[in-house]
């Protein structure tokens, strides 16, 4: 029997400034996604919750909650960028140049901008990345910079699901 492990993600040593990661799985946002996320976060803006109201706005339909868009675009980058994160250290320059609507499919890509060794944690390094979210038409819907602290190879704590595979990707 052969055991196949899913990706354990990338480690600090794997990243090269200038490299771009195309995050492979898009996600179509449904009305249910938008309403549930909006309610969960206690955002009571009628533009997200009230379809009759939204129909009378300049957009003519509900806007997707921008923090849902942010969470989705950021989440799409995890497998490639921060699967082995110690901590997210910050998000900067968040921009929303175009609206997202229910029924849109969101995709994303991330460019590695900078990397450096951690001064306080020799088992880790810091990455600064720029992530761009775009819709099914290729229109940019969100951009942001993020700084993450990631483990170096062989330094990540193992989990029960690792079965000895940590650090071998």
UniProtKB/TrEMBL annotation:
<dbReference type="InterPro" id="IPR029069">
    <property type="entry name" value="HotDog_dom_sf"/>
</dbReference>
<dbReference type="InterPro" id="IPR052342">
    <property type="entry name" value="MCH/BMMD"/>
</dbReference>
<dbReference type="InterPro" id="IPR048274">
    <property type="entry name" value="MC_hydratase"/>
</dbReference>
<protein>
    <submittedName>
        <fullName>MaoC family dehydratase</fullName>
    </submittedName>
</protein>
<dbReference type="Pfam" id="PF19315">
    <property type="entry name" value="MC_hydratase"/>
</dbReference>
